[in-house]
Amino acid sequence: MSFAVDIENLSFTWPKQDTPTLTIPRWQVAQGEHVFLQGHSGSGKSTLLNLLCGVLVANNGRLSVLDHELNQLSSRQRDRFRARKLGVIFQQFNLLPYLTAKENIQLGQWFTDRANAIKPHTDASEHFEQLTTSLGLNQQLLNKQASTLSVGQQQRVAVARALICQPQLIIADEPTSALDTEHRDRFIDLLLTQSRAHKASVIFVSHDRSLAGAFHSQINMQELNRGHIEQEVSHVS
């Protein structure tokens, strides 16, 4: 079986701290699997996502993402890997305020060389139109500067940017937090439909447990992260 994520004896400790923030003995995500990850603030989920994206580097253990050993890559190599292989949707939208919504979505196409990526000059293609329409992004909205968009609109643009190049692994951190029920359901349907079509794996973080049933598996950070459990025991004792 091929794994999108393969972790073994992984640990991460922030500088000037004695106790690891994250300790994961074993965790695997199969290629094409959709995982719902939940956990309260401070459970280590943000640290885990940053490790999976190559933003942080583990102190110990093995972390393989899409058959790439991230701990063995340079910072530049990890940046390139993230741009080419991952679709990342964080709570912070990271849109360029002086660009239009359409231009922000197109940015995702410039940073990948995947053969199936759609080039920016063909942004009127069926794929672009299907993606943006499914997210409720009409032409008028696409032509607006990102700085003028509402929070919910900015989040939908960020989603489109992450999905436009059909990534092999989608990492989403609370992506529906600013969406109303209609757009939330539309986003979930689009995300899972796109991932199934391209056999992409999904790691989806949310506090909204009502969404968990749409995913293949569910995992709680408090169970996954042994470091968090050890910290709680230490605090109690």
TrEMBL record:
Calcium recorded as keyword: no
Matching InterPro entries: AAA+_ATPase, ABC_transporter-like_ATP-bd, ABC_transporter-like_CS, ABC_transpr_LolD-like, MacB-like_ATP-bd, P-loop_NTPase
GO-annotated molecular function: ATP binding; ATP hydrolysis activity; transmembrane transporter activity
TM stretches of this protein: none
ABC transporter domain sequence ranges: 5-236
GO CC terms: plasma membrane
Keywords from the UniProt entry: ATP-binding, Lipoprotein, Nucleotide-binding, Transport
Protein name according to UniProt: Lipoprotein-releasing system ATP-binding protein LolD
UniProt organism field: Paraglaciecola polaris LMG 21857
Gene name of the record: lolD
